[in-house]
């Protein structure tokens, strides 16, 4: 078999069960004795993604660059959406759920501003001399 110019991607770590490892692995260190776990390598585009023991960066890379690959990951089984897909999904504009979320955010922001305004008043009053 002809030698490939590209370094081989090894892995994923046996301890990891995350689905993202279908799309990532590691290069070996220069001496070939271990895996360079500072960076995970995307098997689709060979991008080097900084890896710090959690798969958040890898997940983001897949969503951003290979979103089409993620849709098939559930193999037809109904499952809870991942946090990434949940954030990616858009609610129809003006839907009841969208309105309720907007209202809730607006209310929280307003009450925090009121808290802040009250603090500001106290601070202003108490530090006047
Ligand atoms: Zn990639």
Automatic annotation (TrEMBL):
Q: Which SMART domains did the record assign?
A: ZnF_BED
Q: Where is the BED-type domain?
A: 15-73
Q: Which UniProt keywords apply?
A: Metal-binding, Zinc, Zinc-finger
The protein's name in its UniProt record? BED-type domain-containing protein
């Amino acid at each position: 078999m002809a030698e490939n110019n590209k370094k081989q991607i090894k892995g994923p770590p046996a301890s990891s069960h995350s689905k993202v490892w279908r799309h990532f692995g590691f290069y070996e260190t220069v001496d070939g004795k271990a895996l360079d776990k500072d960076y995970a390598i995307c098997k689709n585009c060979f991008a080097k993604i900084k890896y710090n023991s959690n798969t958040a960066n890898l997940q983001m890379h897949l969503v951003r660059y290979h979103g089409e690959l993620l849709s098939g990951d559930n193999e037809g089984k109904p499952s809870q959406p991942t946090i990434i897909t949940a954030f990616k999904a858009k609610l129809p504009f003006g839907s009841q759920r969208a309105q309720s979320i907007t209202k809730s955010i607006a209310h929280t922001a307003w009450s925090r501003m009121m808290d802040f305004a009250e603090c500001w008043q106290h601070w202003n009053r108490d530090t006047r001399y």
